[in-house]
Structures are given as structure tokens and as C-alpha cells.
What we know:
The structure holds 2 protein chains of 2 kinds.
Chain A: H1 4-21, H2 27-54, E1 66-75, E2 81-88, H3 90-113, H4 120-138, H5 143-161, H6 168-199, H7 208-214, H8 217-232, H9 241-244, H10 250-259, H11 264-271, H12 273-279, H13 281-302, H14 308-328, H15 340-370, H16 386-400, H17 406-421, H18 423-448, H19 454-459, H20 467-482, H21 505-526, H22 532-540, H23 542-549, H24 554-600, H25 608-628
Helix pairs in contact in A: 1-2, 1-4, 2-3, 2-4, 3-4, 3-10, 3-15, 3-20, 4-5, 5-6, 6-8, 8-11, 8-13, 10-15, 12-13, 13-14, 13-18, 14-15, 14-17, 14-18, 15-16, 15-17, 15-20, 16-18, 16-20, 17-18, 17-21, 18-21, 22-23
Chain B: H1 10-28, H2 34-51, E1 58-60, E2 65-67, H3 69-88, H4 90-93, H5 102-120, H6 125-143, H7 150-181, H8 189-192, H9 197-214, H10 222-229, H11 232-256, H12 262-285, H13 290-311, H14 314-345, H15 357-360, H16 362-376, H17 382-396, H18 400-425, H19 440-458, H20 461-471
Antiparallel strand pairs in B: 1-2
Helix pairs in contact in B: 1-2, 1-5, 2-3, 3-5, 3-11, 3-14, 3-19, 5-6, 5-11, 6-7, 6-11, 7-9, 7-10, 9-11, 10-11, 10-13, 11-13, 11-14, 12-13, 12-18, 13-14, 13-17, 14-16, 14-17, 14-19, 14-20, 16-18, 16-19, 17-18, 17-19
Amino acid sequence: xxxxxxxxxxxxxxxxxxxxxxxxxxxxxxxxxxxxxxxxxxxxxxxxxxxxxxxxxxxxxxxxxxxxxxxxxxxxxxxxxxxxxxxxxxxxxxxxxxxxxxxxxxxxxxxxxxxxxxxxxxxxxxxxxxxxxxxxxxxxxxxxxxxxxxxxxxxxxxxxxxxxxxxxxxxxxxxxxxxxxxxxxxxxxxxxxxxxxxxxxxxxxxxxxxxxxxxxxxxxxxxxxxxxxxxxxxxxxxxxxxxxxxxxxxxxxxxxxxxxxxxxxxxxxxxxxxxxxxxxxxxxxxxxxxxxxxxxxxxxxxxxxxxxxxxxxxxxxxxxxxxxxxxxxxxxxxxxxxxxxxxxxxxxxxxxxxxxxxxxxxxxxxxxxxxxxxxxxxxxxxxxxxxxxxxxxxxxxxxxxxxxxxxxxxxxxxxxxxxxxxxxxxxxxxxxxxxxxxxxxxxxxxxxxxxxxxxxxxxxxxxxxxxxxxxxxxxxxxxxxxxxxxxxxxxxxxxxxxxxxxxxxxxxxxxxxxxxxxxxxxxxxxxxxxxxxxxxxxxxxxxxxxxxxxxxxxxxxxxxxxxxxxxxxxxxxxxxxxxxxxxxxxxxxxxxxxxxxxxxxxxxxxxxxxxxxxxxxxxxxxxxxxxxx
Amino acid sequence: xxxxxxxxxxxxxxxxxxxxxxxxxxxxxxxxxxxxxxxxxxxxxxxxxxxxxxxxxxxxxxxxxxxxxxxxxxxxxxxxxxxxxxxxxxxxxxxxxxxxxxxxxxxxxxxxxxxxxxxxxxxxxxxxxxxxxxxxxxxxxxxxxxxxxxxxxxxxxxxxxxxxxxxxxxxxxxxxxxxxxxxxxxxxxxxxxxxxxxxxxxxxxxxxxxxxxxxxxxxxxxxxxxxxxxxxxxxxxxxxxxxxxxxxxxxxxxxxxxxxxxxxxxxxxxxxxxxxxxxxxxxxxxxxxxxxxxxxxxxxxxxxxxxxxxxxxxxxxxxxxxxxxxxxxxxxxxxxxxxxxxxxxxxxxxxxxxxxxxxxxxxxxxxxxxxxxxxxxxxxxxxxxxxxxxxxxxxxxxxxxxxxxxxxxxxxxxxxxxxxxxxxxxxxxxxxxxxxxxxxxxxxxxxxxxxxxxxxxxxxxxxxxxxxxxxx
Lengths: 629, 472
């Protein structure tokens, strides 16, 4: 498996080439370099997955982890050192496939979407950097390598959100994303340090002895790490950056803010799962409740947004909530009952990545066609954009949980796991799943059905996108249709044992009924040209509607906490102290240094006799000093 | 002793071969031969480096000559530095008043290098002293190489007079050693040197002699005048190669020979380090002439190098050599740029000359900036790591007050290094130095320096290799 190193090297090389020499290339060449290297990475990832999963299982019936490459990078003490390497185990191989597939599709799609943009080469360079970082993150052999790539992912996300750096909103959004996730990463870093201190290692498998000695510190470390994961995965209340991050180019949203980077938090929890289960089950359940609340919150906000990318952003937040819940409701590692959620969460991660990337790319086609994100500029687009329409519908059905599309299977497993844990969580998640179906179909009808904006469309007739953009849509739609039938339990389960996915018909039936009811409701409310019901509801519950539209004022709350409380009560006095005491002290130091410099200049007078006097004097004084002491 | 044993002195012998070939070539080649000589010397140096890249232990002449793997590595490093200097000196030697004596430059430089080789692998004070003088006397000729220029001649005179003075003091000290112990062999001395008052004086006198080479305060007064007056490549050579050899020799002798007097010399070093760094920084702040400025900068850098000596451990030894490597590439990059600009402008080395250089010569400015960043110790450049390791090793050995004072001084040094960066990028100028192209060799050497500045820090392999050598 030595070739796995190429999976990291190729995108890195592509980034270096494009960043250093990109401006001298034509758009086509630079795009081809990025896309071809990604194509190679995709092939290699599939090959890796094939080789890995067809290899013999061990005696315990699990796929053993492999480390094709690992070298010591920074030694701290004899035991504690930071390594860099590649770890292959079921979840990292799964992530390799997800990331490379979506990234490859986005690379192809961007050819059409970004055509003629200024900074096309820069865009592809950043895409390569992002892909490199994300791949490095998932194959990390230890938590510190993960952290290094984690931050690289953050940086490349920042660069891509702020791609249109002449737009003030894009700059603000990129800064917001960076600062919020960085703030969360502080928790991650502290967690890592505690972990390293008590475990005497940064690997994911510390020794029994150290685990015993750590006691209560391990749950703390894991909890702090989860804060970092919550930041990247936009869990409430750290979700505020994700909707704004939609200012970036839409393919970027599809890649980073739907399919790959935002699930890094889920991946982190999954990576630490054995430790969570064995030593910090309470922390894991906190994860579940945070995920559940986030899923509910985001779903309710998504019901009233009018910007189609914002709706998708909140739906992403909500779906990541589902994955977190799935991981959080595990109480053991038996894949048949207590540890079912692990498999379900990872399965949902996989299917969600595909259909959400499809939704975003579809949204990109629509935005490309009507030059706006607002739903009121759309309506009735199904006539103009048939391919986008059909693929978008498939994705909506998948996310709503309608069989036989992939989302149904993964969501069903999650719900089963939730019911295993507690009826409250189970019913709660079922209702949220219903809300998902409702707002997705509200979005679907708003775009493709409903009242057409004739004035706007007469001026500029919407048209189907070129093949470079529709091919990824069709490919991802195909994956969305088929993915549900992948025997996922054969690849990824909580303890690695084989598990056959079988439907729990009580749960599945309930969720199908709820989803169909929600879709029917959405059809009744939004499919027609005139929509009296939503308007009436918005009037009747105007306060609630407004609050939901404003995302329940979470951004305002954060601004209040930072600007009014932190800035005014903490930062302002500190700034005063800094300006008047510290700066003045430093100025004084600088002044006195300069003055001293002026004073000593005459000593260097150019006369050789005085030089030797100093020399000799120095020798004598130093000798006397040593003799006396 | 078998006569063939002498061949195990591979490092010195191959250098002598280079020296002789260059000397003969100078006689044979038709003048003007400066270009051919430069190419020849560089190629020969490359071969010499390649031959000696594997460090080895050699013990010869009944302990008179003793080379450890570390010393052998240091020799290779010094050879690389010398090669870089040679690559940078082509344009200067091509000048009309120097081109007829280009051969002399190479031969003289190589003989000083040979002296340093003997100095770092001496097994006795006699051998050490011979090496030291072999490194000093041709150096004076090099400093006065532009002898028809007033500054150069003056610098040469100042250098040789000061050098004689320091040698005299050092010899006086060494006579105390011989007087109290009855031997000059490093192998026998440690148990005899117990720290009697006379021996303390001997140690201080010896230290002063090397302190002169390293330009530690208060033995540094010659440095600014000499650096300013000497031809720029010679100043560069003086600042890195000569210093590197002296620092390594000082550390190994203090550890090996004066090991029993560690309390004495650590106190001595602590005082000298703090004074050196502080005084050099105070002087450096106000310099307008870049060569003079680099002289003070090199004085303060010597202070930092001494921190590794102060540590007195294996970690200190590897940090010291690592510091020297990094210092060679960074400082030679700066001197390379200074030399290029000097040749272009007809001898201007003031900071004002560099105003607005960024607009006309961005690549040169970039190299200079990175080199200055590295000297100032800004991450992620190699200079940061070398400073870090030096500080860490001194800290490990418990000299945290000295380390703290040195740290404060790095802030001052940051200020004056950035003054140059500011001049190049920010200060506007009506007539910046026009765009120009440097000779190919110069560009290659600057590129190598740049590579070193960027890569030496990131690739941890270099430091690991040195650590490995220091333990062996």
C-alpha cells in the first residue's frame, strides 16, 4: 500500500504548481492540472478502498488497521513525539472515497461554473490545497497530525470563502468562519494537550495503564476535543459561520461546507469513538443531545429562509446533527444493538455527502442560470432546466428519506439506533426528519414550480448548464440512487464485525409515513402558483416567523456577547492599559536603547592603541573577577 | 608510525591539493584568468567537499592531531561556506585593479581555511597555535587585498596589529599552561588543570585570544573597522568561516581541556555573552554603513553562539554547529547582496542606497529579506530554529538568566534588522538602484543560501545528524 502516499502528494504538488506558476498558465491548463491530479487521487482512493476491503479479515472478523507510512516528525520526550503518517482503517478509507469523489466532481463542475472568472488559477490552487489538507486530516495517524491538517483545512476554507475578495460580505464571511472555528479549535488544542499529557502519546490507542491513571481527565480531554469538532461541524451554538460561508463560490460550498470539511467534527468523534465508549459515555451522550438540538434548531430555521443556499446550509447543519446524534446514542460497541449508531452515522455521512453535494451543485446551476440566490427570482424553472430539475428532485427525495434513495436507508438506521437509546430521542429525530422533508420540498417547489418570475425570465432566459456542470449532477444522482444498496455494514461498524443492514419495519414505516405527510403538506402549501396558506401563517405567527427568519437571533446574541460584553468590559480596559502603560514602557525602552547607543559611539574611535587598551583591560578585569569569586 | 598513516588526514590533504592546483593554475593560465580560476576553484572545492562528506575519527602524530567526527563535519561545513564565498567573489575579482591577482585571493583564502582545519582538529596547544596563526596571517593579506584603497589598507593594518596583540596574550596564557602542567597535549592536560590562580589566568588569556577571532566584547574593537574596510567577500568570509572555526575550537577545548574549570569559564562566558550581545546591539542600532552594521550584527551573533558553549553539553555542541551552518547561509546571503549592490553602484554600502530596492530588484530584495529574517530569528526560517536550539541547550544547563537577557536582546536585534527591510520595501526613493543582473555564480550562491535558509529549519534531519555526531 505504499502508493497511498501519492494520495497526499499529488494534490500538494498540484497546489504548489498552480500557486507558483498558475498566473502564467491559461485557465484551461491550470484547471486541467488540478482536475487531472484529482482524478488520479480518486482512482488511487478507489484502489485503496478496493484493496483494503477485499483483504482478508483477521481472526476476530475485523478489517485490521494498516499504517503504510509513519515517521517521527518532532520528538518531545522519549515517549511523546509527533508523527506524520498514513493510517488506513475502515473510516479513513471511507472518507478517502467520499472526499476524492466529491472533490473530483467539484473540480469538473468548476470548469463550467468558474469559466472566465478572474483568479481561476488561484481558485484551482486553493481547491487542491483544501483537498490535500482534508485527505491529510482523515489519514492522520495521531491526534496532533489531525490537528495540523485540521487547521490547514480551516485556512483553505477561509481562502475559498473569501475568494471574491472584492465583495465586503465575502470578506466578512471568511473572517467570521475563520474566527469562530479557530475559537472552537482552542478547545480542541487544549483537549489534545491534556490528552498528550496524561496518555504520554498522541496516537489514538493509548496504553491501558495510562488510561487507568488519567481518571476523569480523559472525559474532559474528549469533551474539549468535541468543542473543536463542534466548531468545524457547525453545532449549535457555534454554527453561525456556516450560513455566511455561502458567500464563497457555490462549488466550494458543495465541497467544503456540505460534504467534507463540515463532517470533520463527526469524523473526529468517530475516530475517538472507542475511547468515548469505554471511558466517557456521558460525554458521548452530551454529543447526542447537542446534535439533536442542533438538528431541530437548524431544521426550523431552514423552513423559512428565502436564500436557497442558506436553506441548504441549515439543512446541512441539521443533517450533521443527525450524524452526531447517531454517534452519541451508542452505549456499547456491539454493532447489532448498542453500537448500531456508529455504523448509521458513518453511513449517513457517506450518503449525505453525495446527495448534499448534488443539491449544492444543482443550486449552483440554478444560480448560474438566474444570477440570484433568492427564491422569489425563481419558480417554474423545471421547463428550462430539465436535468437540474430531475437530479435535484432525486436528492430531495433522498434527504427526505423516501425509499429506495440512499438517504432513506441511512436515516432509518439512525432512527433505529435512536429508538434503541430512548423513545424521546427516537421520536424527536423522527419529527425532525419530517421537518427535513417539509423544508426540502418547500425549497424544491419554490425553485421549480410555483409562480414564475416572468419579468426577470423574459429579460434573461434561464438555460440548462453545459455538460461540465450537468455531468457531476448526473453522476452524483446515480450514486444517490444506488448508494442505499451498498452493504455498508460489511465495511464500517462500531467494532469492525460484519453487520447486515436490515430494515426495522416499524421504524421505517413510521418515518416513511411522516416523510410522505410532510411532502404532501409542502405540496399543498407551495406547489401552486398562489400560496395563501404560507402567507397567512406568516401573518398569524409574524413574530415567530420573523425570529426563525433571523435564525432566532443567534448572530445578534453572539455580537452582543462579543461586542458589548467582551469588547467593552474586557478588551477596552486592556487596550487602554496596553496603549498607555505597556506601549509607553516599550517606547521608553526603545528611546533609552537609542540614547545608550548614541552614548557609546565615541568608544569606537578608530585608534588602535585604544582598542588594545580595551582588549588588555578586558583581560585583566575578567581575570581579577574570576580570581576573586 | 607508518608513513602511510598520514593519508588518513584526508580533509587537510585534499585541501592542500586544491591549494596547490589553484596556485599552479594561476601560474600557467594566461591572464586575465580570473574567470577560469573561479570555475576551477569552485569545481575543485566541490570535489573536496564530496570526498570528505563522511565524517571520521583520525588520531595522528602521537595525539598532536586528533579529529573527531564532529570536527570532520565542521570542516566540511566550513568548506561549503568557503565555496559560497568563492562563488560570490567573481565580480569583485573581475574588477580591473584586482583581476591580475585573483589567484592570490583563492590561494590565501584556502590557506586560512587550512589553518582553521588544523585549529579545529588540534590535539595539542602547539598544533592549535600553528593552525591559528596560519588562519590569521594570510587573513591580514586578504583584508588588505584592495591595498591601493585607503580603507582596505587601514583595515589590514588594524587587523594584523590587533591579531598580533591577541596572539601574544594567548601565547602568554599558553605558556602558563605549559609552566604549570609541563605538557601541551590535550589528552594529558585535563587532570592537571585544576583551577589554580595561574591556570585561571591562563584560561582567561587563552579565551581572550579566541575571543579576538570571535570578536567578543571587549576583544571586538577591530571588527567594525576591518569589516568596513575589507573587500566585501572577505568580510563575509571573516564573519562566518573564521568565526565558525573559532567557536567550535573554543567549545571543544573548553570542554575537553579545561573541563575541570567549568565553574570558572561558565561564569566568564556568562558575563562576556551578556556584554557582547548588549554592546553589539547598542552599536548596531545607529549604523548607516551596512558593512559596519553587519560587523556589529556578527558580534552579537557570536554572543548567541557562545550560549551553546555555555551549555557545555552534547546538545550544546550540536546546537553550536547547527547555528554555525544556519549562520553561514544567512550571513553569506546578506554579504552576497551587499557585494552585488556595491559592485553595481561603484562602492556604495550605505543603507540609503537600498531605499526602494524592492521596485527595481525584487528577487535580490527577497533574498536579503529572508536572510535578515533568519538572522533575526523569525520563524519559520532556519535562524529561528538555530536560536531556539541554542537557547534551549543553555536553558537546559541552567543558565536561564543569561538566556533571558539574550532573549531581550533579540528584540533589539529584530529592530535593526527590520530597518533594512523597511528601507528596501517602504522608504521611498527618487533614484533607487537600477535593475541589474548579477553574474551566474553569484545567483547560484544566493539561491543555495536561500535554499538553506528555508530548508535547514524545516528538515529536522540536519539537526538530528549533528546530534548523532555529537554523541559519537
